[in-house]
Write a structure and sequence with these properties.
Blueprint (H helix, E strand, L loop, with lengths): L6 E2 L15 E4 L2 E5 L9 H15 L29 H23 L19
Antiparallel strand pairs: 1-2, 2-3
Helix pairs in contact: 1-2
């Protein structure tokens, strides 16, 4: 069956520039831009947060499954410029990831869904830190 909606890239984060330049970003089957051409990689954090919160709001009336795969803490790490950390780029990326989780949780609370929602947070990005 797959998913009802997709927003993201068709490759893994580490396959992006420079080894795979101009990685496309898709909204379902429509290409909405290319990283490094008309989408700044660091803006993906904000785009993913906006897509996730919009999905929750639009689907609040029925049970839903949201799979949000953040890649900004995976090497090479990145974060929007408004996130900084004394721990360097990885710390900034982790703070940005924390902000996204907060946006999702806030939206669940605003839509009165938090008490009936199971959130699972998992990562494969901890082996080198």
């Amino acid at each position: 069956h797959g998913f009802d909606h997709f927003y993201g890239t068709p490759v893994t984060h580490c396959e992006g520039p420079p080894s795979y330049p101009a990685v496309p970003v898709f909204d379902d089957n429509k290409k909405v831009g290319r990283i490094g051409i008309d989408i700044v990689r660091t803006d993906l954090v904000n785009r993913y947060a906006a897509q996730a919160t919009q999905f929750i709001t639009e689907n609040k009336a029925d049970p839903f499954f949201l799979y949000l795969a953040m890649d900004n803490t995976h090497s090479p790490v990145f974060a929007p410029p408004n996130f900084t950390s004394p721990r360097g780029p990885y710390g900034a990326a982790t703070e940005a990831l924390d902000w996204v989780v907060g946006q999702v949780m806030t939206t669940l609370k605003q839509q009165d869904l938090a008490q009936d929602t199971l959130m699972v947070f998992t990562s494969d990005n901890g082996a080198w830190y």
